[in-house]
Amino acid sequence: MPEATADLTPVQALRLLQEGNRRFVDGRAEHPNQDAAHRASLAPSQYPFAVLFGCSDSRLAAEIIFDRGLGDLFVVRTAGHVAGPEVLGSIEYGVSLLGCPLVVVLGHDACGAVGAARSAVEQGTEQPGYVGDVVERVTPSVLATHAAGLTEPDDFIDTHIRRTVDQLLNRSRLLAEAVAEGRVAVVGLSYRLADGSARIVVGPNEKDAEQ
Predict the structure, then answer these.
(1) pLDDT confidence of residue 46
(2) Which Gene3D superfamilies match (predicted)?
(3) Residue 95 falls within a domain, yes or no?
C-alpha cells in the first residue's frame, strides 16, 4: 500500500483532497501518482483513499480538481449524483473491499439535473426517456428546498448534496455501520465551476473530527 495513503483516518483523507483542491485552484497542481513507475506498481492491486461519488458533468473530473493520480480515488459518477443499486454497491465495494475511509458526495453549481428538476417543479417541463427518471429522482431535493423557504441557486444544490449523503447512509447498512464505528466518514462538497474551489456542505461527524 502506498505509504502516503496507508492507514489514513477519514479526516486525514479529507485533508488530502482539500490540499489538492487548493493547489488546483491556485495553479500549483503537482499531478502526483501519474508517472509510469506508479502506474506499474498499481497493476497488482489498488489502494484508493476515498470514494468519490459525483455528478457526471464533464467539468468535474475528480483526479484533476483534487490534484490526485492513478489509484488515489475510487470514482462513481451519475447525472445529478442520483444513487441507484449499482451506485450503492460500488460505494460499498470501495468501503468494504478497498478500505476507503472517506466517501465524498460531490455536487456543483449550475447542475443541469438540479436545474431540470427545478423547471419540472416550477414550470411543469418534462424531459424525455431516462433523463426524465434522473429528474424525478432529483425532484424531492427541489421540493425540500422550496418547503424550507430557500430560494438561492446554491440552496438547491446544497439541499440535494445533503439529501444524497442522507440517502447513502439510510439505504446502505454497511456504510452506516462503518460510519457509526468511526472507520468511515461521508461528506458532501460543492464544486464551483468558475474558480475550481470545492467547499464543504456536509462535514465529517464529530467523532471523526476528533481523530
Answers:
(1) 96
(2) Carbonic anhydrase
(3) yes
